[in-house]
Design the sequence.
């Protein structure tokens, strides 16, 4: 997928090549860009292309791509802010930072906040609340999923063939 950042780099490369070709390397980028656009208008006249129509299409594409980037940023913030507090079927407590299909986790219980999760775990296990330790946290990464271990190191989650993240978390045991 082409990102807006990559597109800007491609445009920068085009402007740089144009500046080298025309001897404008010492000029400000806005001068280089305006001269490139002017020369594109000369090309438009030569090729009988409607430059202003192309600019309108380019502007619509630019606005659409900006909106896609804004929407993706919002989705990332939503996913990273998700806090699911889960006591799995084996009795371990977790904080999960992405949406889950809770129906795929038979025997697991969800809680509204971390405090309620820890209290439920202490009660179910008979362990004093102060002795429970840190919750294991699961995050979504570009490569899949990761988990923090009790020593706060981050490890990639190794899902077995066909195993869902829900099954992995629900079956998690030391």
Sequence:
């Amino acid at each position: 997928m082409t990102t807006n950042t990559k597109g800007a780099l491609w445009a920068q490369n085009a402007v740089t090549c144009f500046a080298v070709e025309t001897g404008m390397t010492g000029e400000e980028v806005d001068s280089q860009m305006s001269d490139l656009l002017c020369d594109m208008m000369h090309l438009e006249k030569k090729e009988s292309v409607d430059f202003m129509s192309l600019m309108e299409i380019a502007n619509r594409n630019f606005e659409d791509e900006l909106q896609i980037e804004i929407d993706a940023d919002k989705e990332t913030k939503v996913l990273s802010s998700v806090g699911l507090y889960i006591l799995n079927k084996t009795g371990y407590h977790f904080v999960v930072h992405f949406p889950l299909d809770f129906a795929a986790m038979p025997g697991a219980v969800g809680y509204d906040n971390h405090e309620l999760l820890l209290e439920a775990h202490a009660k179910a296990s008979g362990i004093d609340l102060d002795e429970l330790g840190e919750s294991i946290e699961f995050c979504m990464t570009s490569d899949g999923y990761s988990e923090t271990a009790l020593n706060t190191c981050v490890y990639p989650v190794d899902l077995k063939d066909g195993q869902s993240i829900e099954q992995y978390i629900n079956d998690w045991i030391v």
Remarks:
- Strands lie at 84-87, 93-96, 109-111, 136-141, 144-148, 154-156.
- The helical segments are 4-22, 29-47, 51-81, 114-125, 165-171.
